[in-house]
From TrEMBL:
GO terms for molecular function: isomerase activity. Residues 1-22 form the signal peptide. SUPFAM superfamilies: Xylose isomerase-like. This is Xylose isomerase-like TIM barrel. The keyword Chaperone does not apply. Residues 53-291 form the Xylose isomerase-like TIM barrel domain. It comes from Fuerstiella marisgermanici. InterPro entries: IolE/XylAMocC-like, TAT_signal, Xyl_isomerase-like_sf, Xyl_isomerase-like_TIM-brl. It holds the Pfam family AP_endonuc_2. Keywords: Isomerase, Signal. PANTHER family: BLR5974 PROTEIN, HYDROXYPYRUVATE ISOMERASE.
Length: 295
């Protein structure tokens, strides 16, 4: 017959197991969703795209909805609901909408965003700003800040978040990170935030990329992942884990409160050739395995 002591011990063990399960479920709920940038797959139907991303193990896609992408901006009101419906049938989401939007006064841009917001799409990637080296750098940043403030006001009204990707290159606003930090000063990150690209950050900052990461961290809404090596004149994209991107970044990221999506970009196979679609899927499958091991 059980004694009071064994009963209390059993009750304590059960309570511990229950609390551990709740903690595990809470951690799982907070896990970063992983999506894939689907630029190489314009030749596929929406159903084919959704089925394949689900089969590989993604939670959703980052879809180019811009000139030359899956859907032309003018066709968004008719076709974007079709893409979202195809994804939902496979328990997938359109996690990030990649756009050519950075002007809130453009009526077509507003129509795209209104449609996206009604469909429950939370994030869209902005188009880049590029420096004119013959003009004041700081004045250009200040001008772009005002434009992003106007865009933030529209996003707040619609309930959607713009993300600006830091992109490596001589004249890209956001490449050095500090300028992006300055440009976003005073703007709510849930209205205009950052898609932090660790590949581009490493290209631009070399060994000092952690400083830029910590600087821009409060603005980060989405994380982009891809890899590169240095060629003779420029960086070359390579499979994840074969290049210069440091897996320690993900341990650093895990120590923050970041709970946004992570988007995998495979850009080392020519995306313009439909006959290479099977190679893209196989490469993405391998990159996803590496990414999950790092996360």
């Amino acid at each position: 017959m059980p004694t009071r002591r064994t009963f209390l011990a059993a009750s304590a063990a059960a309570a511990f197991a229950s609390s551990k399960l709740a903690a595990d479920e809470s951690s799982a709920a907070k896990a970063n969703q992983i999506c894939v940038f689907t630029k190489p797959f314009n030749s596929l139907t929406f159903d084919e795209l959704a089925t394949q991303t689900a089969n590989i193990g993604f939670n959703g896609i980052e879809a180019p909805i811009r000139p030359g992408g899956h859907i032309e901006p003018e066709a968004v009101p008719d076709k974007l609901p079709q893409l979202v419906a195809a994804l939902e049938k496979q328990n997938q989401k359109l996690t990030v909408l990649t756009s050519n939007i950075n002007d809130p006064s453009d009526p077509l841009s507003e129509a795209v965003l209104r449609t996206a917001a009604k469909l429950g799409i939370r994030y869209y990637r902005m188009q880049y700003f590029k420096y004119d080296e013959s003009k004041s750098i700081t004045k250009q940043i200040d001008e772009w800040r005002m434009k992003m403030k106007d865009l933030a006001a529209l996003n707040k009204q619609l309930g959607i978040t713009a993300v600006y990707q830091n992109h490596a290159g001589r004249n890209y606003f956001g490449a050095p990170i500090w300028d992006l930090h300055r440009g976003l000063d005073g703007i709510d990150p849930t209205q205009v935030g950052v898609a932090y690209d660790i590949r581009h950050a490493t290209v631009e900052a070399g060994m000092s990329w952690p400083i830029g990461f910590h600087l821009i961290r409060p603005h980060i809404q989405v994380v982009y992942v891809k890899d590169f090596t240095w060629g003779e004149a420029r960086p070359t994209n390579v499979p994840l884990g074969d290049g210069r991107v440091d897996s320690k970044f993900f341990r650093m990221l895990a120590r923050t409160d970041f709970r946004g999506p992570v988007s995998l970009h495979e850009e080392y196979i020519d995306h313009r050739k439909p006959e290479l679609v099977p190679e893209h899927w196989e490469a993405i499958r391998k990159d996803l395995k590496t990414l999950k091991s790092w996360l």
